[in-house]
Specification:
The protein has 356 residues and is α/β, with parallel strands linked by helices. Helices cover 32% and strands 18% of the residues. The structure holds threonylcarbamoyladenylate and magnesium ion.
């Protein structure tokens, strides 16, 4: 299959952008697949109401078809037709956080095919805030099913470069544009129960949600690798976000962390193995490794979030076999997007954490 790359620049004339989005929308309406930017990560879109489109999405990603897709809408009025009920707390959350990086799980209506929901009676819905995403969804007919636009098992793409690396020849079109600012996938909240339950942490934190609806819960499996329960979001059971090499999270006093990581990298070096380190600005000069990634100031969790998946992808491209990262647990795990960062890092590291 030939994949068209459509580049949109901020300075492009509105009519020119409109024409490109119109073509992308038409492609979806005709059953094609289009990758597009959102404020979190790139999505791989297809018509959410067309079972054949959903089948194609699973095939393009190499994703197990029991892992449901998120339906993206651009207009709150479109929610009614795809869900069978809108609980009061969901209305409040939609008012507060849509458009934005929040996905809610509802009971689905007849209109949504089971191919889109991985066989479930529930449907995940999100209204993104990226302006191009919104206009594209409108032109696509209003309901775009989109997982992250990576091959299954790879980190979600935050730039078009990595969408192209994974999806070239597998989908019809890739929209290449700026504005993927958050860098980690949306917060997922199940709103079907009495108390909204967080299934995946993201930019919208538990604290922010609780301010709007009072009590909220969190799926116990999110941070507990030893839990025998299946996660409530089917996708969270897979070893996602994984780089090719082995990643280890190192926790402790800064001086101890630096000493441990440097000991490890020099041992690998002696064996001719390639090493990588992710560190914060304050410590970055102290590390020795083949590839060193500066995650920014230790208090700047947004900077870490924005760059994390790019670092993991770059390590892959550079052939790095052993990677070490400072833990961000002390710095900001319980603040803002910090919890989402640690959740994704733990998965990428297969829960390998060393306390020094
Ligand atoms: O930020 C995002 O959410 C991005 C952008 C493109 O919007 N999308 C994204 O999609 O991360 P994906 O498919 O990579 O992750 C969707 C997650 C999976 O873990 C899936 O299992 C879960 O949402 N999910 C989808 N529908 C669900 C449902 N009905 N019940 C429980 N979990 C659901
Ligand atoms: Mg994904």
């Amino acid at each position: 299959m030939e994949t068209q790359i459509v580049t949109i620049e901020k300075a492009d004339a509105p009519a020119y952008i409109d024409e490109k989005l119109e073509r992308a929308g038409a492609c979806i309406r005709q059953g094609g697949l289009v990758a597009f930017p959102t404020e979190t990560v790139y999505g791989l879109g297809g018509d959410a109401l067309n079972p054949e489109s959903s089948r194609k999405i699973y095939a393009a990603k190499g994703r197990p078809s029991d892992n449901p897709l998120i339906v993206h809408i651009a207009d709150l009025g479109h929610l009614d037709s795809i869900v069978s009920e809108i609980p009061e707390h969901a209305r409040k959350l939609a008012d507060a956080f849509w458009p934005g990086p929040l996905t809610m799980i509802f009971r689905k209506s007849e209109l949504v095919p089971r191919q889109t929901t991985g066989g479930l009676d529930t449907v995940a819905v999100r209204m993104p805030s990226h302006p191009l995403a919104n206009r594209f969804i409108e032109k696509a007919g209003g309901y775009v099913a989109a997982p992250s636009a990576n091959l299954s098992g790879k980190p979600s793409p935050t730039t078009a470069k990595y969408v192209i690396q994974d999806m070239m020849g597998r989908i019809d079109m890739i929209i290449d544009a700026d504005g993927v600012e958050i860098g980690l996938e949306s917060t997922i909240v199940d709103v079907t129960g009495d108390v909204p339950m967080i299934l995946r942490p993201g930019y919208i934190t538990q604290e922010m949600l609780s301010k709007v609806v009072g009590e909220t819960d969190m799926d116990v499996t999110i941070f507990d690798s030893s839990s025998t329960q299946a996660p409530k979001a089917p996708g969270m059971k897979y070893r996602h976000y994984a780089p090719k090499g082995e990643l280890v999270i190192v926790e402790g006093e800064p001086a101890d962390v630096v000493r441990y990581i440097n000991e490890q990298t020099s041992l690998h070096e002696q064996k001719g193995e390639k090493t990588g380190v992710i560190g914060t600005q304050e410590l970055i000069e102290k590390y020795h490794a083949d590839s060193i990634k500066n995650a920014g100031n230790k208090d700047d969790s947004a900077s870490v979030a924005r760059q994390l998946y790019t670092f993991l992808r770059e390590f892959d491209d550079e052939g790095i076999e052993y990677m070490y990262t400072q833990s961000f647990a002390d710095a900001f795990a319980d603040k803002g997007i910090g919890q989402a960062i640690m959740n994704r890092l733990l998965k990428a590291a297969g829960h390998r954490v060393i306390k020094v």
